């Protein structure tokens, strides 16, 4: 089965094709290039994999949280292609992309948004918690009750986040994503997941609240 995946949430635009559980081709371009070069990148991946759109059985897309512009465009592209080609679409969270192929008892996955703002998912055993906002506020919310010396695997964190964790006496094991680019992890993950019930059900998850909110009267 051939799966085409797109991702624009994690700091770049990437596309990948997985064939029977292996990556046949992938491409990543940094920066906000999704609008101008997104379809060019998709065509390049098709050429590198030696497939046509008729060979694609399903599509996948990273639905965030993540960078607003790239995320919005990647989701729009994926939904448009799925509709035009009459193919199912599988949404994949950014946290699952970052953690793909790994197994940790305790892990914090971190997605950076605006400067100083993060969205995170904390998993420990069967416990799963999410939070979004300023770095200090998020870590205080999640780890205020954690004892000194807690060991934690952290995926996707910048130096600012790692330092903030260290200040809270949390012993950090910083881990790089096992599969890159992001679209490659999404393509592999989508091979074993059920597609969305409809394209309307696939929505971008921006993670954080708007930068400015209007107070209620």
Structure description:
The chain is an alpha/beta fold. The protein has 2 domains: 2-93 and 179-201, 2-Layer Sandwich (Nucleotidyltransferase, domain 5), CATH 3.30.420.40; 101-175, 2-Layer Sandwich (Nucleotidyltransferase, domain 5). It has 6 helices and 10 strands. The chain has a 5-stranded mixed beta sheet with strand order 3-2-1-4-5, sandwiched between helices. Strands 8-7-6-9-10 form a 5-stranded mixed beta sheet. Helix 1 (34-49) crosses helix 2 (68-85). The protein is elongated, with a radius of gyration of 18 Å. 41% of the residues are buried. Mean pLDDT is 91; it is low at 210-217.
CATH topology of the largest domain: Nucleotidyltransferase, domain 5
Give me the Rg, rounded. 18 Å
Strand content: 25-35%
| Structural class computed from helices and strand pairing | alpha/beta
Widest sheet, order of strands: 3-2-1-4-5
Number of helices: 6
Mean model confidence by pLDDT: 91
Number of DSSP strand runs: 10
Largest sheet: 5 strands, mixed
Order of helices and strands: EEEHEHEHEEEHEHEH
How many domain modules? 2
Task: Describe this structure in a few short sentences.
This protein has 217 residues and is α/β, with parallel strands linked by helices.
Features:
alpha/beta, elongated, 2 domains, five-stranded mixed β-sheet
List the topology elements.
Layout: E1 2-7, E2 12-19, E3 22-30, H1 34-49, E4 56-62, H2 68-85, E5 89-92, H3 94-99, E6 106-112, E7 117-124, E8 127-134, H4 135-143, E9 151-155, H5 159-167, E10 171-175, H6 182-190
Parallel strand pairs: 1-4, 4-5, 6-9, 9-10
Antiparallel strand pairs: 1-2, 2-3, 6-7, 7-8
Helix pairs in contact: 1-2
């Amino acid at each position: 089965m051939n799966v085409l995946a797109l991702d624009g949430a994690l700091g770049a635009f990437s596309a990948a094709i997985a064939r029977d559980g292996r990556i046949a081709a992938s491409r990543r371009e940094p920066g906000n290039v999704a609008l101008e070069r997104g379809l060019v990148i998709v065509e390049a991946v098709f050429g590198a994999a030696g497939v046509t759109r008729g060979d694609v059985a399903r599509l996948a897309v990273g639905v965030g949280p993540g960078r607003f512009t790239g995320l919005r465009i990647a989701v729009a592209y994926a939904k448009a292609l799925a509709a035009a080609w009459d193919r199912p679409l599988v949404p994949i969270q950014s946290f699952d992309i970052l953690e793909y192929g790994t197994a940790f008892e305790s892990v914090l996955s971190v997605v950076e948004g605006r400067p100083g703002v993060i969205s995170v998912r904390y998993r420990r055993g069967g416990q799963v918690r999410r939070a979004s906002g300023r770095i200090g506020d998020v870590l205080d919310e999640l780890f205020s009750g954690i004892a000194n010396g807690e060991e934690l695997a952290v995926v996707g964190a910048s130096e600012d986040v790692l330092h903030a964790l260290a200040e809270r006496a949390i012993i950090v094991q910083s881990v790089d994503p096992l599969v890159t680019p992001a679209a490659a992890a999404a393509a592999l993950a989508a091979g074993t997941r059920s597609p969305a019930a409809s394209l309307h059900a696939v929505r971008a998850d921006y993670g954080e609240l708007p930068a400015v909110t209007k107070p209620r009267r």
